[in-house]
Records
---
Amino acid sequence: MSSALMSSALMSSALMSSAMWSNPVQWAFWLLGGLALLGALGTVTRRSPVQAALFLVLTLVATGGLFLVLHASFLAAMQVLVYAGAVMVLFLFVVMSVSHTEGETLGLAQGTVGKLIGLAAVGVLGHQLLRVCLTVGDGTSVGAALPGGFGDVRSLGRWIFSRYLLPFEAISVLLLVAIVAAVAITRRPPRGRAEGEG
Amino acid sequence: MTGGVGMGELQALAPLLVVTGWAALLLLVSALAGGRSLRLGPLALCGLLLALAAVVWDWRLVGAGGQVLFGGLAVSDRFALFLDALLLLAGSLTVLISGAYLDEHGFADDAYFSLLLLAISGMMLLVHATSLVMLLIGLETMSLAIYALVAFWVGKATSAEAALKYFVMGAVASAFLVFGVALIYGVTGATGYRALAEAAAQAAGQPLLLLGMVFVLGALAFKVAIVPLHMWVPDAYEGAPTPVTGLMASAVKAAGFGALLRLLATSFAADGLVYGSTGWLNPCWTLAALTMSLGNLAALRQPSIKRMLAYSSVAHAGYVLLGVIAAGLHPGQLAPVLFYLLSYAAATLGALGVVAWIGRREAERLTFEDWAGLARHHPVVALAMTVFMLSLAGVPPTGGFFAKFYLFRAALRDPQLVTLVVIAVLNSVVSVYYYLRPVVAMYFQDGVAQPQPLARPGVYAMLGLALALVLLLGLLPGVPLDWALHAQLAR
């Protein structure tokens, strides 16, 4: 969601620049940003869960491409491998094993009030984004101020294990919590008292 | 970029590291036990007490100014350590009562205690965080563990329903938090509180920054149950195992308010972010008034004592928010809020402890009729429950009275808050009615024969400790207040 929003922000600022048509990077940016937005729209509008999940794959792959445009090759590879690969395969697995019938749709029919609230939120956010894009200036400077080695494995590793060591370790604990929690709540209900059960 | 972590940084984070490590140890022990049912409660308690000792040690170590850790990602100051102590205390009381409760209601306790410790480590991370990144990780660690604990009552429909409601709404709140962090980072280019304070002072009034602030504060407001983000509270509190309800009402609330206090007092403290039509003062004022009023009015009509205590926790969140506003306006005024959180935690843990004590496997006994005539058979516990209720209502000589007194006195120093204090006092008067309902039922109504309550040493130890704490806070309020006065934020 936020990545789509950010890419749209960057996109509109790229729109302001005059030099955009001459630069192949800008072309790639436009294409990928558009694909990411298209996928995001498809994800939230498709009624079939499988189609929605596939649109999400499109968004994730396009976001991976955007990382590549930003010279973050390692992040791009990870994005595609982990999210578009592993996570989405699990998603599709669950969706396909849960929905039994062919034409099953998501039961998220929202009333008029819900749609109006959603539209209002989109309007407010869009308006703010537009204001920011108009004040930030043109998008040609994106990527210009990056330090050497930005986004490659070496610098990423150095950051993770030095300055961002604490959040890195804390996220490991977070993942541990998620695993333990998932195992704890999916176990079978005990038949007797706790003493008799493993 | 220099690598490596100093020994001093690890020492300053010792309480957090002890709790996290101990949770892993508990997991290891239950894995090695290979399916045999263990009583891990005492071991978990040891870990919490060890961490408490580390807090005392660090209190001297970090000094009055606090210690900035990991280049400003986290901090160890006396504010965080005070809240650490509160969280560990609440955790210890919860662990004490959990053992008997798990046995009685037939839970397997293999992962329960490690999840409890991991939840507390997430909360500690939340109060130590001085970066939006750490704030997010701490909040998620806490939340995931608490969701699982709420759902721990496997096979009970209300527990699963409570956990699902809490989880879905909580996930939306987390999404808003991430979104808010992204917006704030987009405007200011900073996630650390200190850098954020400087950048935000320049960018005050930027609509996207305000939107990001609203999202971040909203996510925290969800966790501490500020109206209108309190919808999950009654169901989640009622459906959760009672010791977990106690932990949610005391520790989760304290951790959430700790993070909120630090955020408002350090990084969103520029004048342009506080006052004016876009500042957080006016919305928080309105929300505090709404929270205490709606919480109290809803609590008046609840048929179940657990639900009544859930709505009472919403009302108390309103009072605390009043204190948070006062502390945000005058950064020196943290002590009354900390004292309030401590006193509320002791009283609500005690009250929910009595609820856990009275319930048996076949009968949870949550309605007021179930409590009728309790004083005749169990005079001591009935007296303890009365003290807890009086403390929640704010009647002397309990901790609740001094908590409200200090809080309102601090708020009255600011002329903008006088009306809000009047609303709060009126609300406290209203709340006396529903807090006295269980007391009236216990002492003045005749009940039918009921099953014996859960008479186990851990339960009585927990109730005794909570009672001692409530009375101590009421009779000797000076000592904890003095500690709270030393608990200042690192600048």
---
Amino acid sequence: MVIPNFSIGPLHLLDVLPYVAIVTILGVILLLTPFLVWYERVALALIQDRLGPNRVGPRGLLQAFADGIKLFLKEDIRPSAIDATIYYAAPVLMMIPALAACAVLPVADLRIDMGGGRIEAIPFVVGNVNIGILYLLGLTSLQVYGIVLAGWASNNKYSLMGGLRSSAQTISYELSMTMAVLTGVLISGSTNMVEIVRSQAGTVADWNIAKFLPLGFIATVVYLIAMVAETNRAPFDLPEAESELVAGFHTEYSSMKFAMFFMCEYASMLVISGVATALWFGGWNSPHPALNFVPGFVWFILKVVAFVMVYVWVRATLPRLRYDALMALGWKRLLPIALAALVLTATWDAVRTPADKKSGWPVIEAPHDADKPVARASNAR
Amino acid sequence: MNAYLTAAMFTITGFAFIASTLLISRILRPSAPNPDKLETYECGPLPVGDAWRQFNLHYYLFALVFVVFDVEAAFLYPWAVAFKLEGPYAVAEMLIFVALLLAGWAYAWKRGALEWE
């Protein structure tokens, strides 16, 4: 699908593209959240053999909007024992990184006719930052401040416990996640999100999950486990374990500030699923060249939605972990596995890549024959 | 630089959205506080003391081990992008670096820093 570089008055498509991206991505994230809530409730009801929301709107589709309006109009209870400044700042501190992280998610590669038959691939992304993956990791880990400050400022024992648990859990799984992402960066050879996705063009076999088998696959599994823990979702939802901590860090929050935490959970689910898609599952690339007629953004959205479905499925299936089991899984299982995958991938790549592709490596030139093509030793050591 | 600018604009737009929803909600919602309603929630009974007190020291231990590994990760990112250009020494250097860290990790495990009581 080739789009001409049309212009409206003095504005060219390429100039306004980032602004279009800002509005669409922010709008999609915020509009998708109510449907995610609806989907989660319906899917959980289906799995648990009950009805779920079915009153507001067709098939209960408007239930989440009704809940939103309710939260919007509810009285805001400001407990007397709180640390007011931090208490009010915490939901905003949590929501901003979740939204800001979307800025580097590469949604699609637009093919734009630059005139004169020259077609260029322009990524549809808000900020094509060259350290995109670091930007994402940095912002997702900033969210822990929101949680721990909300827990602390509430001056409630349940909140404090929830906040502390969450911070310890997030930093533990962040390590495994960082190492797994590092493996992905190593495979793709770039920290730019767009470059990472472009390096996976082709078939399913070109996606990072299928490279350096089984190492790419192992790193992907580590990432997927860590991503559920990072977003504090079941079975890793100890920070808000309702059977022991009431509601965890947001026990004392009401009205719109509670809605912020709620929206933030879904926004970060979308973001982190988007990273998984871009890093391991080919981003906007179709699984087979025969399916290339489907636009890239459709693939991207399909993959992200698939991850969200897995999130809900996992929540409905697995029981919550005990806290010591949770920490042991993060530190004693996932971290060494992720590190091993990283080291082995690096070594494998160093051995495999033809020597002439690397400047610092010894290159042995085969004797040059006039009638033979130049042959080069591929594994010169 | 332009990419960072648009990313910053995105963040500002997001912040504007958050601020406006909080503000509009503030105008629309009722406000009828009373002392009982504003009490800290502790499942019904009056709360015993406040929550700003000592808590499990073990959280700090995990935080310390985390800092060590996270700094390592920060070093490894540039390496992961550049090692294809840097030759075999880069791989060897990384192996030594990771081996040193693994030794620290094994020590922390042996001393029980990774156990949760």
